[in-house]
Glucose 1-dehydrogenase
Amino acid sequence: MTDFSSVRNKVAIVTGASDGLGKAIALCFADNGMKVVVSDINAEKGNKVVDEIRKAGGEATFFRTDVSQEEDVKGLVKFAVDTYGRLDGIVNNAGISAESRPTHEYSLSEFDQLTSINLKGVFLGMKFGIEAILRSKVSGGFVINVASLAGLLGNSSMAIYTSAKHGVVGLTKSAALDYAPYNITVNAICPGTIKTSIWGNAPEEVIQQYAKLLSPNGRLGDPKEVAHLALFLASDLARYLSGSAITVDAGSSAGKLTPTQWAHPEILE
Ligand SMILES: NC(=O)c1ccc[n+]([C@@H]2O[C@H](COP(=O)([O-])OP(=O)(O)OC[C@H]3O[C@@H](n4cnc5c(N)ncnc54)[C@H](O)[C@@H]3O)[C@@H](O)[C@H]2O)c1
């Protein structure tokens, strides 16, 4: 039987953990015996995540952070080390979406706002997080950056989001090489279309249309389906896996989806 118990007692920071993918990752980590620093700009919801973890018998604390602010991220990492004595890993997940628009219609302030959270925020998490992991001298350190399929492929009407996510994949691959000799793995998770509040106020039918259009299996992903990959990457089972940008997208980035006529559809009956 494969044993995931190597994650037990590892100390991890998860940014953007008040909701969506970050929340699912924090819950999954804590459920498996990790000590989690839940971090988010939204303190009210973040404290509720901590309550949920503690009620289930897990270990977590909240620290409010705006990942675009250097002093906040520095403070977050210090808090984690002061609270738990060390840091094993960081999940740089906090991110925002941008309105869909052709490239020339974005303003510079929109570009600055998005990249300061989605790219600079990841860099800051890596900068201070990796320093703390190195100082902690842990045996299996990890960095998990939540990028996107937009980190691997171009997207019409999403130039600034796509450029930031490509940057996250670049940071991931380069840092993987920097820290491989020190037994710290650095990977990116590239989710496809996952059901979280990043979809904002989009009506359910629009979301479902997107799911049919973008996902070969016709449904949105569940945040837990991303969290399970994060758990594997945090475990010692994944020590030989680094510098990868791993898709969780039901195969949508694998190639072009074309309609196929089955010769024997009765096999499904
Ligand atoms: N849901 C998807 O379909 C999808 C697909 C690809 C990539 N992603 C990426 O996954 C990550 C998580 O997205 P999600 O879908 O869970 O979104 P979400 O909106 O449900 O959650 C994002 C969390 O980040 C927090 N946050 C926003 N700005 C912040 C800041 N400046 N500092 C700290 N926290 C901040 C929010 O408060 C929220 O709790 C993002 O990086 C996103 O780009 C999501």
User: Anything to note?
Assistant: The first strand starts at residue 11 and ends at 15.
